[in-house]
């Protein structure tokens, strides 16, 4: 097994070892995107940066550290077919960390882990010292883990955690984003619009937020929502992604003219499934996403909501720094609006 060190990280990213070293020392000459990529790869490879000992000074600077926990399997996080939202969030976090001389450690936690007592947490050495340390959470975690972490650390989630309103959160405004998408579809003449999502190992709070926003907007627009046109949410859940797509194809043939997907990767899965069955996007059916993930391969550019991931990362980091200074202050939830990206997946419905 190759040795995990800064040279290995540099070789894999195609940069110099000096650049990698400067990322870990918050050198001002390193841009935030490069620093975020180095932090990500270091976490994936299991590299832990050890600070060199320095001579004692009369008054040591109070050092603040962030632990970033990403609830994702590395295979899913580093998929090649789209750019991970977590990667873009880290750019904003690293910008804030560099500007304020904050140390950053990143670790991946598998969604299958459901308890803070799991050995995976004991292996994270940086969590043993709680002094001047806070946690940033990316993606939904098991409720029991959040509960235990919130007792021990200042905690900020960079995605809404539905069952834990007491913790701080920085996230996109799901409601305004879904509203924008439905306005776009109705302006094209769509009236029968379905909602598509899928189940995850850990309940995807963002998916529920977007579903509730969908139902609210459809009601305010006075458009009927049929339970049969809702896929992936109780009680219309399916055993696999394929079976959910098959149901969406069936509903499309029975009259649904547009689908609002809870996330871009779901929309791209739906597009692939439709095209395998001979349905053309957007001639036969319109599809929207939510995330602003750049397209890959020969897929059509998606009509979606561009999430300000960088701003969310910076805002969450700023809030966590405040929580470290004032441990038991009141919690805050900060929602940042996204913007519409006009793609190639929305057109007028067939007469």
Query: In terms of structural class, how would the helical and strand content be classed?
Result: alpha/beta
Q: What is the CATH first-level class name of the largest domain?
A: Alpha Beta
CATH topology of the largest domain: Rossmann fold
Count of DSSP E strands?
12
N-to-C order of helices and strands: HHHEHHEHEHEEHEHEHEHEEHEE
Total domains, how many?
A: 2
The CATH superfamily of the largest domain appears as Response regulator
For the largest beta-sheet, the strand count, sense and barrel status come to: 6 strands, parallel
Q: Which strands sit side by side, in order, in the main sheet? A: 2-1-3-4-5-11
Q: So how many helices?
A: 12
Tell me the distance between the termini. 61 Å
Outline the low-pLDDT stretches. 52-60
Give the fraction of residues assigned to helices.
25-40%
The overall pLDDT average reads 85
Q: Oligomeric status of the shown chains?
A: single chain
Quote the beta fraction: 5-15%
CATH 2nd-level architecture of the largest domain = 3-Layer(aba) Sandwich
